[in-house]
Specification:
four-stranded antiparallel beta sheet, 95 residues, alpha+beta, binds zinc ion, Rubrerythrin, domain 2, 1 helix
Amino acid sequence: MTMYAFRCQECGPFDARYPIGSAPDRSSCPDCGGPSSRMITAPGIAGGRDPYRLAVERTMASADAPRVVSSLPATNSRRPVRVTTHPLHRTLPRP
Ligand SMILES: [Zn+2]
């Protein structure tokens, strides 16, 4: 099974799996059921769990919907988390 890219006229792009060489030129959108045409894309031969690819996908996903945090992560108060090791960052103003 290979992932093929389609574009719905209403909902935008989505991926669908078909056996190699048997993907139709048109498909139906999984969200609205509307007509969708197949897009020509670069082959996804990397596959698997490539760390670089996962990082790029996470970055692209957060560009559209950034994750907002409302508090700092829990830390051990005796050992504060070092955010940076650059010596000039120690001169930055502190809250
Ligand atoms: Zn749709």
